[in-house]
Amino acid sequence: MLKTSHESGITTLTLDAPETRNALSAGLVARLADTLAACGADPGVRAVVLTHTGNTFSAGADLKAPPDPYALVALLRRIVELPKPVLARVDGHVRAGGLGLLGACDIVAVSEASDFAFTEVRLGLAPAVISLTVLPRVEPRAAGRYYLTGERFGAAEAVRMGLATVAAPEADEALSPVLRSLRRASPQGLAASKRLVAARVLETFERDAEEFVGRSAALFASAEAREGMTAFLERRDPVWAI
Questions:
Q1: What is the pLDDT of residues 118-169, one digit of tens each?
Q2: Fewer C-beta neighbours within 10 Å, C or N terminus of the chain?
């Protein structure tokens, strides 16, 4: 479910459930949060890289075993507050809640073959909880378009709108120079600098977390969302599609 490795100050956490497209189940969210906490307390960890096996970074919430929305908020906040840089390495598809992880990360390196979509609107849902990390990062007009349409967009657009930091033909090509620089940085300097750049995102948690959790819970409990999720699992169009 989650693999961990460490090399030269960099701990890599690999989402390893390709059979579910690395969907965010309750179990995966809890384990990821605990592992990140351990990384934050370990003086041997200079930075954390979050990556994946298979062709999908994460398909979002596991519709068969969804995480508690408060647990997802806690995970996203842990990434933002961790006193070490957290980087995402993406080489494939990212959907829905998986985009919340990207918003929480400090640096996001993607391959040019990667693609992204806020698919919640097509299920009778909205990207409520993940807005805590996405909206402070993303250009407002782009958020308006992709939240409302559920359209797919590519790596170049992800960088342009602020969801990703850098794109290259291969994800490691984009990530390697960043890791070299982080290894030369002071741990104290990294922690202090991260607090500065994360402050605006944390303000959003303080202001909006309770409201967004309430919106998410109400949507998931609705008849329209039940139809949307059932249609998705049954690989058919929902009744409202025209």
A1: 999 999 999 999 999 999 999 999 999 999 999 999 999 999 999 999 999 9
A2: C
Residues 240 and 237: their CA atoms lie apart, in Å, by 8
CA 147, CA 14: separation in Å to the nearest integer?
Answer: 27
Tell how far CA 239 is from the center of its chain: 29
**Res 109: pLDDT:** 98
Residue 69 binned pLDDT confidence (cut-offs 50, 70, 90): very high
* Nearest partner of 125 among 236, 242, 230, judged by Cα: 230
Which residue is it, tokens 């989650």? 2
| Cα 23 to the center of its chain, rounded Å | 11
Parallel, antiparallel or unpaired: strands 2-7 and 10-15: antiparallel
How far is the C-alpha of 173 from the C-alpha of 166, rounded, in Å? 10
In this structure, are strands 107-111 and 86-90 parallel, antiparallel, or unpaired?
parallel
| 98 neighbors 58 (Cβ within 8 angstroms) | yes
Q: Across residues 214-233, what is the average pLDDT?
A: 96
Which is nearest to 15 in space by CA: 73, 65, 71, 55?
Answer: 55
How does residue 39 score in pLDDT terms, banded at 50, 70 and 90?
A: very high
Task: Extract the tokens encoding 72.
Answer: 């997802």
Contact 209, 73 (CB under 8 A): yes
Contacts of 55 (CB under 8 A, 6+ apart): 18, 91, 92, 93
